[in-house]
Amino acid sequence: MTKPHGVGPYVKVTQRSWPEWVALIDAMGGRQLAHPDIVPLVQDAIAHLELKNHGWWAQGITIAYEQHIGRRIPGQQGDGTFAASASKSVSGSMDAAIAAWIAVVDGRTSFNGLKVTDKPSTSATAKWRYWRCQLEDDSRVNVTVNETAAGKCRVAVQHNQLVSPEAAVECKAYWKTQLARL
Questions:
Q1: Do 147 and 97 contact (CB within 8 A), yes or no?
Q2: How many other β-carbons are positioned within 10 Å of the β-carbon of residue 116?
Q3: Cβ atoms within 10 A of the Cβ of 19, count?
Q4: Residue 4: which of 52, 50, 71, 56 has the closest Cα?
Q5: What is the pTM of this model?
Q6: DSSP 56-97
Q7: Nearest to 64 by CA among 134, 109, 103, 14
Q8: Most exposed: 87, 90, 107, 123, by fewest CB within 10 Å?
Q9: Residue burial 155-178, b: 16+ Cβ < 10 Å; e: rest
Q10: pLDDT along the chain (182 residues), means of 10
C-alpha cells in the first residue's frame, strides 16, 4: 500500500504548519467539498508563493488533507478507486517499444483473469505511443511509451479504476511480470 502523504514538504514550502493548513481548509468548507472544489481554494492560498507549479502543490496539499480527515486512504484516487502502475526501461525507439509491447499482449483475451471487453486501441503523438484496453470489471489499462534518452524508452502501465488497495498491489505485480517479457 502507498504511504500517506508526508506533510513536511508542504509545511516547509508554504511556511504554514499542518494544523494551520487543516484549519484553513476546514474554514473554506473542505470537509463538505469534493476534491476538485478544494484544489483551487488551496491554489489561491499559495498563489503568492514563488513555486514552479502551484497546481501540483495544491493537489498534494489537498490529498494530504483528505487523508488527514479520513476521506481517502493512501493510494486512493479522488473518485474512491485505486490504481496500479509499473514501468520498465527498454532499448530502442518508441515505435519498437510499442511493437514489442503489442507482441507481448497480442491475441490476449484477458489480463490477470479479467476479460478484455473492447479491442485494444493504439495511438501516437510525436512524443508518446499509447496502447489502451477496457476490462470486464470496468477497470482500464493504459500503456504509454516515451523516449527517455537517445535509444532508450520507458514503457509504463497504468491500471485504473481498481476497487481496493489489495487489487492495486496484485495488479502491480501482474503488470511487472508482463513488462519483464519485453
A1: no
A2: 16
A3: 11
A4: 71
A5: 0.75
A6: HHHHHHHHHHHHHTTS--TTB-TTS-EEEEEEEEEES-HHHH
A7: 14
A8: 107
A9: bbbbbbbbeebebbbbbbebbeeb
A10: 71 94 97 95 95 92 92 86 96 97 96 95 97 96 97 97 94 97 96
